[in-house]
Design goal:
The chain is built from 9 helices and 8 strands. 63% of the residues lie in helices and 11% in strands. By secondary structure, the chain is mainly alpha-helical.
């Protein structure tokens, strides 16, 4: 046992020594360039885009070759402008449409001249005019595809139930999950009296977030829930459902709490009203932050394989990346569960009646 331990220590020492020798031979500018490249790649990977890129590589001349397919760009600039994102050539060229020129800068489309001039203010924000953008970006396309997938799954499942009470095909997988959402999330938090009117939304948001999170773990670069606009829209739906379905007891507990002295009611009313807005805000931040942090950490560990550039460090980074990927599978389902659970909890507080106490 001591010999094995000593051998492992010797191999590790030699590997580290060789790595240090290689590192000493590499210029600091080259090492810095590699780290900057990895950082820029991670930042680019997390962003939405006007085309669906599958992968990219450099040819023998050092030119970056992109593989993927373009998406439709829809702008309103004195009229409707519809064209293919291939005109931008991945943000490298200026698109000329109807006598107007447009360019992508920091993942936004600006109106410019034929030379593609972008002017910036003191804080390096582009000052060019921005047309109204209704483009079908990569995230929007994935949202449409997931929505279509969910519609096909549940419509087929409903069609099978009309013929047979026992689930078939996809229904065998979906039925236990649907029953879990109903029996362990909706009914305990909302109550048997009101839970049915919220079930459609709870099931939709659960499967939508779950499927989207799983797609985010694929190499396709689909990172929908790390876009704060998407999580904001989901949280907004929860807020609107809670607000417009709340009964008089819900609003009474916000503006004029029973059993509380009048001076305290005046003090607590704005705090309770602010809390009604903060609750859905916490939903969007929690989902956005957890998914974004997971992607950044995972890609950073993968990038460490190229920084170490030796069999020991790269192998450890690879094993750690695999372990973290398995953990992300759990996080994908966990975030869908938490979002659905908290939404059901807010719905339950909105429809709670005195008899429920």
């Amino acid at each position: 046992m001591k010999k094995i331990t000593f051998l492992l220590f010797l191999v590790s020492f030699v590997s580290v020594a060789q790595h240090n020798e290689k590192t000493d031979q590499v210029k600091p500018t080259e090492e810095k360039s590699l780290k900057v490249t990895i950082k820029e790649y991670i930042s680019h990977h997390l962003l939405d885009s006007y085309d669906f890129g599958l992968y990219s590589f450099k040819d023998d001349q050092g030119k970056t070759i992109h593989r993927g397919f373009p998406l439709p760009v829809i702008l309103w600039d004195g009229g409707l402008k519809v064209f293919s994102s291939s005109k931008f050539h991945h943000g490298e060229t200026v698109a000329e449409v109807g006598g107007n020129y447009y360019k992508v800068d920091h993942n936004k489309i600006y109106k410019t001249d034929a030379a593609g001039t972008i002017t910036y203010d003191a804080e390096h924000h582009a000052t060019n005019e921005k047309p109204l953008d209704f483009s079908i970006t990569k995230n929007v396309m994935v949202i449409f595809l997931v929505g279509l997938l969910m519609f096909l799954m549940f419509s087929r499942m409903a069609k099978n139930y009309k013929k047979n009470a026992l689930p078939k095909g996809m229904g065998r997988l979906l039925e236990p999950i649907i029953l879990y959402v109903r029996d362990d999330i909706a009914i305990p938090n909302i109550g048997t009296k009101h839970y049915k009117k919220y079930m459609s939304y709870l099931l939709t948001v659960f499967f939508f977030v779950w499927i989207i999170n799983l797609l985010g773990l694929t190499p396709l670069g689909v990172n929908v829930t790390n876009n704060i606009a998407v999580t904001f829209a989901l949280a907004l739906f929860t807020f609107l459902f809670t607000t417009f379905t709340g009964n008089k007891n819900y609003w009474k507990h916000i503006f004029w709490m029973p059993g509380v002295p009048v001076p305290m009611k005046i003090i607590l009313a704005p705090i309770e009203l602010l809390g009604a807005v903060i609750k859905p805000f916490s939903l969007l931040i929690r989902l956005y932050a957890n998914i974004t942090a997971g992607h950044i950490v995972l890609m950073s560990i993968i990038g460490m394989m190229f920084i170490f550039n030796n069999w020991l460090g790269s192998s450890l980074s690879f094993v750690l990346a695999i372990a973290l990927s398995l953990l992300e599978l759990l996080v994908a389902a966990l975030q869908a569960y938490i979002f659905t659970m908290l939404s059901a909890l807010y719905f339950g507080s909105a429809v709670e009646e005195h008899d429920d106490h």
